Amino acid sequence: MWYLCVFFHRLLDYRRAEVEALAELFGAFDDGVGDDHHQLQWKLPERHHPDSPFHLVNLPSEDAARNIANRSLLVKGIYELWGEGDNYEELEKAVTSYPDERKLPYLATETTFRIVVDSFGKIINFEEQNKRIQSLKFIPFKGRVNLKNPEQKFWLMETDDYGSKNGLPPVVQKRIFFGREVGAADRKLLPTYQLKSRNYLGPTAMDAEMAFLMANQALATKGKLVYDPFVGTGSILVAAAHFGAMTMGADIDIRVVRDGRGPDCNYGLPMPISLLRADNNLPSWRQGLKEIFDAIICDPPYGVRAGGRKSGGRKLLKGAVDPYTVPDDKRTGHIPSTAPYSLAECVHDLLELAARMLVMNGPYTDDIAELAMKMHLEFKENHLKWLEDGNLHSAVFSPTSSVNGASGDSNFNRDSKPKYRGKYV
Amino acid sequence: MRLLTHNMLSCNIKGVTNGFPLRIEAEKFMEKEVDFNIDFLKSIFSKIEWTALVEAAQSLGYNELPEEVVDSSSMLESSDFLKKFHHALLELHLEEGALICPETGRRFPVSKGIPNMLLHEDEV
């Protein structure tokens, strides 16, 4: 069944990906609604840009929709759409013609309900909101109004063609939606886990919202083992542990492993199953160990502020000093020197780690490997051109291609791409 | 450090071919409760080097594990076995001590429950 999925207007590229991952987690693909590639069917409301917060998604059941919405961070709500239109006459027609057997159970006398008026890209003042609610009289609400704890929440959502006012192509077109809420994100998680509530922070501690998004995409759940090879202060593991996963982390820097300690910091979550001081470049896994982690989530080191390090001295690896032996009496407590660890090496090691240690038939499948290879070749061939055109990011992550069928290949030109806040998207 | 971790690690000094299992030298160990999860235990079971786990548990004074796994599928149905397995794998916790490479005798110190597997310059 098709549901209206309304997103928060942030982290645009991650929104559908999160819903897809959660759909998989809650078994939406088990009965064949998604196609072979484990993707959901998506639609956009008429004349809406992919950046629009309004999407239509086909989900197998209301339970799946509720589970997905309740666990996600970026879904404002998933709604059973009772009607939509360009104006209130059209909306009334649509809602009236929506089948009664779908509507009446939620309008019965013993139910409590409330109507929420919401808008995107405009403000509706309180008086106007009341007028709009009054205009819904054609719907036979029999239940009692309860503003605090209603059993049913109905949403009236309006968008405006606000783009026409600032000279940019509009992200959304004027449209009015009316629907029954099936589930909504619990963003109360974020204030609870926000970084400023931590006892200990590193220079690049992962933002809580991003960490939860990653944990969602990694399908972290009870009984899964999640590994972070650059654990730092453990911000990513906090999110995974919140969802009940067993966690494991390693870092080359003893300060962060020793003092950060990940999930136990002050949220009462279980401790990581293990923390290691180890070098991702020279992993000390035993021979024959493979397919043990359900997910690897990490924020690989790069740049200067918390750049990557690997074992072996900088001068030693360059050959500037001759190999030497640490004297036996100094071995205990010796602090080995490290060398810079380039991003390329780091990504290489990560792929090695993933190929060896991820369980098969988890999130990583042959399809993904094939797609990654294709993307890689395409990127190698075209990245200079994209860079010149100034749309490197969108060429790689092409948010439009999956919707209107324009492929992510090399034929990009400036005019075909919509502009948003002055940038090509 | 749980014995699950111990079961995954080996000595990776350059040239060492037989760095597993690391011998445990325990100065201080404790038991920390971990939530019991049958699905996790069943899926991790096949990845575990059983002899190494039994020996590691014995070095921490836990002798309840069977020496050999004869019929793994029926054993995994026994809740008694699963409880022992769970306890040995996840609840025994080496807090202070060292892991010792069976080939070279190199000590990897374990302090505050965190093993330091980092190599010195001349071992890379």
From TrEMBL, chain A:
Pfam families: Tmrp11_N, UPF0020
Domain spans labelled tRNA (guanine(10)-N(2))-methyltransferase TRMT11 N-terminal: 2-187
GO cellular component: cytoplasm; tRNA methyltransferase complex
Broad EC category: transferase
Domain of life assignment: Eukaryota
Main location class: cytoplasm
Single Gene Ontology BP annotation: tRNA processing
Domain called Ribosomal RNA large subunit methyltransferase K/L-like methyltransferase: residue spans: 197-312
Family: Belongs to the class I-like SAM-binding methyltransferase superfamily. TRM11 methyltransferase family.
Protein name in UniProt: tRNA (guanine(10)-N(2))-methyltransferase
Organism from which the protein derives: Stephania japonica
From TrEMBL, chain B:
Annotated CDD domains: Trm112-like (cd21089)
GO MF, one example: protein heterodimerization activity
Matches recorded under SUPFAM superfamilies: Trm112p-like (SSF158997)
Pfam families found in the cross-reference section: Trm112p
Listed GO biological process terms: rRNA (guanine-N7)-methylation; tRNA methylation
Top-level division of the source organism's lineage: Eukaryota
Gene3D superfamilies hit by this protein: 2.20.25.10
Subunit composition and interactions: Interacts with TRM9.
Similarity comment: family membership: Belongs to the TRM112 family.
Name by which UniProt lists this protein: Multifunctional methyltransferase subunit TRM112-like protein
Organism: Stephania japonica
